[in-house]
C-alpha cells in the first residue's frame, strides 16, 4: 500500500472506533495595547489523533513537536530554566482557552505523505517511519497498526 492509502485506512479505523483526539495549538504573542505587552497564549488550530511520532488529522499527517498540558499559572520555584519554560507554555495554553489538564501539541509541522520527509521515508520501496530521533526505520503499516490499536484499546492502567 502507498503512504496515503495507509494513512486513510488508519483514519477510517480511528473514526469508526471514536478514538480520542488531542488539540493542536500555536503560540501567539498578542499585540501591545497602549504600549503594554500582554502575556502570550496558545490558540487552538484543530485536533488530531496522536500516533507516537505522527499526528493524524482528517486531511493531513503532521510530525509531532512539543506536548504540554494546560494548567493555571502559579508561582513556583524551579531548579531548571526548562521547567520554567514548560510551565509558561502550560499557562499560555490555559490563557488560550484550553481546559485544565487538556493535552496540547505545539511545534508540529505538516508532512508530505508522498515525499520522503522525516520521519516518513521509503526504505527499499517500503513506506517506513523513523519513530524516534535515534531509532531506525520501521515499516509504516506495522507502526500504524500498533499505534491505532493502542489508541483504540489502551492497556489497563494507562
UniProtKB/TrEMBL annotation:
It comes from the Bacteria. The lineage of its organism: Bacteria, Bacillati, Actinomycetota, Actinomycetes, Micrococcales. It comes from Microbacterium kyungheense. This is Glutaminase.
